[in-house]
């Protein structure tokens, strides 16, 4: 069964997440893989974002109603399209030549899709501007931006523990299965990079089509703290746990973070996770689940996925991107090990490659978005209109 194979059931069917049979979904070789069928609807915008708002079933079943919206600058509510299992919150940014419909048509070609994953304490909005730029340049592609478990809008979708790299990866695999799409490109930043490697590890081998995986400023194994001016997630999570769950202003949080030695950039990024509460006193609260995120970061430190890099599934090309100024995250042993994996993969029909993003620290998509765009564009060139 190919990587990210779609369920043979109809998209409009209701599926319980807990009943998902992983063996039949990702590794069965006893039957021919179902042909991926993309979802389309006419649109004249340069790109569109299909935002899926999820609502609980009154009977407690893990079922959500998917509301699709075509947005320009603001979200415009549309009628409910279908029901599906609650998995993760996401946006789908589409190029002008992509069509989206609730009608499944086997005659339509599969829309090339890339999945973008954020790091610890991030959210799918981190990739919004970058994905829209890709959609303008590559109008035949669509870009799935995901809030990982315990982050962003996915926080309201309660997940059973343990909260790990592997469980976060499985969430995304379930989501793409539910949406009946077959990603050709996977991009993960920092923690999201290990999630991408875990997705490849948990899916079936060999693959039905080439898949390019991008691991942005993260290694498969040991996690090393950033240098001065960079983020220190463990210390940051500890500090956030000492703050009130509701605050009166973002300025108070910014001040507290900077006083504790975090850079202004890191502080500004963290407060994007504050949202207004429904209380009349205009207070703000965090959108993430810090307890779950603490477990996820511990798993990030403990998870070792070198086996995926050193035994790359046929059809997978793993790309590592090191930020030039991210000196503390990378050790010489990491670079040497990746170089050995490059040679071994080429002999075995897979692919491993190392890239360096100049003039960038760990926050690659904000430090040097133009350079990152040039490097990642190689994965989309074949489908450019």
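^ Assign residues to that structure.
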């Amino acid at each position: 069964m190919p990587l990210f194979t779609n369920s043979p059931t109809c998209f409009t069917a209701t599926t319980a997440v807990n009943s998902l049979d992983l063996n039949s979904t990702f590794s069965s070789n006893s039957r021919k893989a179902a042909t991926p069928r993309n979802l389309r609807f006419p649109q004249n915008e340069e790109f569109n974002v299909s935002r899926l708002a999820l609502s609980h079933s009154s009977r407690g079943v893990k079922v959500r109603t998917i509301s699709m919206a075509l947005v320009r600058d603001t979200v415009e509510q549309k009628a409910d399209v279908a029901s599906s299992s609650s998995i993760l919150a996401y946006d789908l940014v589409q190029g002008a030549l992509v069509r989206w419909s609730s009608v499944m048509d086997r005659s339509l070609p599969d829309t090339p899709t890339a999945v973008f994953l954020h790091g610890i304490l991030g959210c799918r909005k981190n990739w919004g501007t970058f994905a829209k730029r890709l959609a303008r340049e590559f109008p035949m592609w669509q870009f799935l931006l995901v809030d990982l478990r315990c982050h962003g809008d996915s926080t309201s979708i309660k997940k059973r523990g343990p909260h790990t790299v592997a469980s976060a990866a499985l969430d995304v695999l379930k989501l793409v299965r539910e949406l009946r799409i077959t990603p050709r490109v996977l991009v993960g930043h920092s923690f999201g990079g290990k999630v991408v490697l875990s997705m490849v590890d948990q899916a079936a081998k060999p693959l039905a089509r080439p898949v390019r995986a991008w691991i942005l400023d993260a290694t498969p194994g040991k996690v090393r703290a950033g240098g001065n001016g960079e983020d220190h997630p463990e210390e940051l999570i500890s500090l956030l746990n000492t703050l009130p769950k509701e605050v009166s202003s973002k300025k108070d949080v910014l001040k507290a973070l900077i006083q504790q030695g975090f850079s202004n950039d890191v502080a500004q990024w963290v407060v994007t996770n504050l949202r207004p509460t429904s209380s009349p006193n205009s207070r703000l609260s965090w959108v993430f689940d810090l307890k779950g995120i603490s477990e996820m970061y511990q798993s990030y430190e403990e998870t070792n996925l070198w086996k995926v890099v050193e035994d790359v599934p046929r059809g997978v090309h793993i790309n590592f991107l090191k930020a030039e100024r991210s000196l503390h995250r990378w050790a010489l042993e990491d670079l040497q090990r990746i170089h050995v994996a490059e040679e071994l993969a080429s002999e075995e029909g897979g692919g491993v490659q190392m890239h360096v993003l100049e003039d960038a620290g760990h926050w690659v998509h904000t430090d040097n978005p133009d350079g990152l765009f040039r490097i990642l564009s190689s994965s989309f060139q074949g489908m450019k209109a």
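Residues 200 and 362 are 23 Å apart (CA to CA).
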